[in-house]
Amino acid sequence: MKRIVIAAFATCILTFSLSCKKGFLDQVPDDRLTLDETFRNRNSAEKFLANVYSVIPDEASQRFPGSDNNIGEWTGGSDEAEYDWGFVATQNINNGTYDASSGFVSGFWTTYYRGIRSAGIFMDNVDKVSDLPNSLKVQYKAEARALRAMYYFWLMRIYGPVVITGDKTISPDASFDDVQLPRSSFDECVAYVTSELDAAMVDLPLKASNTNNYGRVNRAYAMAIKSQVLLYAASPLFNGNTDYSSMQNADGKKLISDQYDASKWKNAADAAKAFIDQFVPSQFDLYRVNDANGNYSPYLSTRDVMLVDWNKEIIYARIDAGITNRAYELAPYHSGYADEVRGSGGLGATQTMVDAYFMANGRSIDDPASGYVKTGFSDFQAPYDDKARRTYNQWANREPRFYVGITYNGSKWLNSNSGEVITETYNTANSGKQTGGNDYSPTGYIVRKNIVTGDWRQGGRSWVMLRLAEIYLNYAEALNEAEPGNADVLKYVNLIRNRAGVPEYGSADLPAPAGQDAMREAIRKERRVELAFENSRFFDTRRWKIAEVTDNGPFKALNISANLPEFYNLVTFENRVFNKRHYLYPIPQKDVDSDKQLVQNTGW
């Protein structure tokens, strides 16, 4: 069996169309004969399955979200970052200028349901394939079942309760007007998705048997997704949230329960711990690497975990991702330098994200004992540099993950193949606003995480979608809510901190957070830094129900329209808009109009 190369197979020419002309359920083959022909032989059946896989989003290409590619606006649409270009849909997210008719709103709904429909068709028909071994029929069916469950979950993250079409695939002969289905409650969606993942796990391989099977869904990934589903179900947005009390189907069914259920946190903690007990360290472990002198390097470990394909921490990655799309955004403009170091620098980190990183002593910058200095300059050697350089004090003596994640004015660029390059982001500098024209950082900082150390145009690398560090943080968060004071909470947060090279909580240098509330805040801070720019923050602030604070109001940046020293002054680059209705996207208006049982989300 050849490896499923998603990007290639996504455009494979099949003998039927799965396009959406009227609504999310109007996605069936043109006729029965075409469907029968598709499942007549192994080759065309495997292409069909590859098409189901193609719905997995390529999140490395977030300049081009929505439509048929399912790419999200999660990085620039969160408080982590800002895109330079006005055409990127994140501008609509940040300004609150979208509604139920916006293209990207309907894009996710349509495309994920297309994948759900395709997975069902495959499961219904794969047994007909005469030249496919029974063992592969069972495995492929389990893969399709898991993919269908994942697509439901990814819809739930965006829209909340969704329409569960069930195991029975709607007949190709049914007209669109005949299909009238209500939304299931969020709890029903969770129960269905987790039960489907459980069923799929029985027949999924534990892990990829060889490199040719990278990119396939396996038992480990299905189990990890289950833990994520249960974490969302336990989170404040969906657990005891009274804001949606009036959102009900025609029969009076509440779509989101307004009753808090503490057992949901225990379910989430148990699911994450079950994953850890089964797969760590036999299959997964935190990625750690030594430097050239043989000493452990927190900087290299937290940097290269995103760069080394399928290392021991990676649970799942999207193969053949458009990684050069993201690299173009991360590589600064670097006017006058070789093409291999010249990008756009158009994905700027916000000041609030820069401030979120800890100091080298593991303390937040607002801690009086952190040693943070807000003004002035000092000679400081970054962990990727070969010498000390004059550095703005705000950026000196920060933790290793800061230097993995942020390119700042005066920092050395990672690729020195054509000579030393120092990135400068003030107005007339080599990567400044006036110099770059349409390509510059809108904040004065450039996201650095996930950029290769050589030619940024180098492709062929996968995009990390889930790694063990997130499971550890999921477990710590859920356990802190279910059993505050349990020793495992501190243990798993400290495993993350230890790998990152910052003092552990409860060590001689740093007291442990005292009480459940303080621990909750510590876990959220750790998650923000560890998973920065990995598409978690957008959903975390929403499920925690804090986005009205974190994603709303004035956002600060360096004064990119000025040269030194005025460049270092903070200015407001955008006043963002986030209110209660923005916690969930609206259901696409065309589907609400067509399906008379489909209830719109509150506020839309």
From TrEMBL:
Keyword Signal: yes
SUPFAM superfamilies in alphabetical order: TPR-like
Residue intervals of the SusD-like N-terminal domain: 24-231
Record-level GO cellular component terms: cell outer membrane
Pfam families per UniProt: SusD-like_3, SusD_RagB
Residue ranges annotated for the RagB/SusD domain, each copy included: 324-604
Compartments, as annotated in UniProt: Cell outer membrane
Annotated InterPro entries: SusD-like_N (IPR033985), SusD_RagB_dom (IPR012944), TPR-like_helical_dom_sf (IPR011990)
Source taxon at top rank: Bacteria
Primary location class: membrane
Keywords of this entry: Cell outer membrane, Membrane, Signal
Xref: Gene3D superfamilies: 1.25.40.390
Family: Belongs to the SusD family.
Protein name, UniProt field: RagB/SusD family nutrient uptake outer membrane protein
